[in-house]
Design a protein that fits this description.
The chain is about 25% helix and about 30% strand. By secondary structure, it is an alpha+beta fold. A 6-stranded antiparallel β-sheet has the order 1-10-9-2-3-6. The chain has a 4-stranded antiparallel β-sheet with strand order 7-5-4-8. Strand 4 and strand 5 form a beta hairpin. The longest helix has 17 residues.
């Protein structure tokens, strides 16, 4: 994988990998915010990210870090609608016509998991280098409960997964070509970035490496947080969670 600004978002330790779960002993209901599947082409493929949405504590830390980084590197990105703070659980290619089946299978996992009861610990900053820049993130300890959930989600999606896709599987906007490295990353997410290779994190932004090196030497005050939501997103450029396909309402 080439180390340029675009490709760093695809690095294993930073690729948005964490998100979805359902609460307690109750059911997880869901609603769709984007059209489910294009019926016209039975061979159409969609690149998806099943992820967890963090609570206000993590959002506050991620936003504060992003604000700090953008002051020293204004050309970096803001945490906005196209760069939503999240923890990816799994990224896969699936047949578009099977999206509803994916939602149903994942929903069953959410319904039996105490998602909002998860207690996760953020314990350090780190970054992925690319020349004189770095992509920064807040690292999360992979608890046994989180790893179990990730595996359950993988098992639920696997029957509907296909080996790979093309740029057409992503949200592309005015630029129709997706980086080949991203296509490879999604295709190889399981097993190269899952299980023992799973590195949960929340991406916080771009900044010069010299600045990030100094930031990483600063004391990091660990904090705990919990997921408040779970969703399936349509992946876009750089592996971003570009469009929400399904939101799960987690109930106790």
């Amino acid at each position: 994988m080439k180390t340029n600004v675009k490709n760093i978002l695809l690095n294993g330790t930073m690729a948005c990998a964490l998100a979805m779960l359902a609460l307690g002993t109750g059911r997880a209901t869901a609603h769709t915010t984007e059209p489910a599947a294009a019926k016209a082409d039975p061979n159409a493929v969609t690149a998806i990210d099943i992820l967890l949405e963090p609570d206000a504590t993590m959002l506050q830390h991620a936003t504060a870090t992003n604000d700090r980084l953008r002051k020293v590197f204004p050309k970096g990105f803001a945490l906005d609608a196209e760069h939503r703070p999240h923890i990816s659980l799994v990224q896969r290619f699936v047949l578009t016509e099977n999206l509803d089946k994916v939602y149903a299978a994942v929903g069953k996992v959410f319904a039996s998991a105490n998602v909002t009861g998860l207690k996760l610990e953020a314990f350090k900053y780190y970054y992925i280098p690319t020349k004189d820049l770095g992509l920064s993130g807040i690292v999360i300890k992979p608890t046994p409960e989180l790893l179990k959930l990730e595996q359950q989600v993988i098992d639920a999606v696997t029957p509907f997964a296909v080996k790979t896709g093309t740029s057409a599987a992503f949200v592309t906007g005015p630029d129709p070509e997706i980086l080949p490295a991203l296509i490879t990353y999604v295709a190889e997410f399981v097993p190269k970035h899952s299980g023992e290779n799973y590195h949960p994190h929340v991406t916080t932004g771009l900044a010069p490496r010299e600045y990030l090196d100094k930031m990483l030497k600063e004391p990091f005050e660990a904090f705990t947080f919990s997921p408040t939501g779970a969703a399936v997103y349509h992946l876009g450029h750089f592996g971003t969670a570009a469009k929400k396909l399904k939101q799960f309402d987690l109930k106790p």
